[in-house]
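Hey,

Quick one before I head out. I ran the complex with fe (ii) ion overnight. Inputs first:
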Amino acid sequence: MSKIEWDDSLSVGVAAIDDQHKNWIECFNSAAEAVEAKHETAQVIKTLAFLVDYTEDHFSTEEKYMTENDYPGLAEHKEKHDELKKTLADLVRDFQEEGATRPLADGMDTFLGNWLANHIHEVDMKFSSFVREKGITIPAATP
Ligand SMILES: [Fe+2]
Ligand SMILES: [Fe+2]
C-alpha cells in the first residue's frame, strides 16, 4: 500500500483548505494502514468512521466556500464529492460484510488514494485558481 505524503505540489495556496487536506490525508493513511494490517475490527471501523466524518466535513467546508463566493463550478465540484462519498460508503459496506480483505485494501489504495490526490490536483486546484483570480480571502480558522 502506498501512503500519501503531503508535499507542496498538493498545496492549493489557500491555507484553510491545505490544513484540511493535510488532516484528510492523515485520516486516509490511518484507515488504509488499519485495513492493510488487518487490525482488529473495532480499530478499522474507528479509522474508517473518522475518514467518513472528516471527508464529509471537508467537502461541506469547501462547498460552503464555493456557495459563499458564487463559484460557477460548484455543481460540477459537488458531483465529484458525491461520487467519492458513495465510493467511500461502498468500501465501508464491503468492510462490514467481508472484513479487511485484500480487495478492500487494494480498493482503498486505488479508488480512494488515487482519487484523493487527483481531486486535490485537478478539481480543488480549479477552485483555488478562482479564489486567487477574484482576490477572495478565505478565513484561516476551520475545524
Ligand atoms: Fe478538498
Ligand atoms: Fe473538493
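Residues 62, 77, 81, 119, 123-124 surround fe (ii) ion (ligand 2) (CB under 6 Å).

Talk tomorrow,
K.
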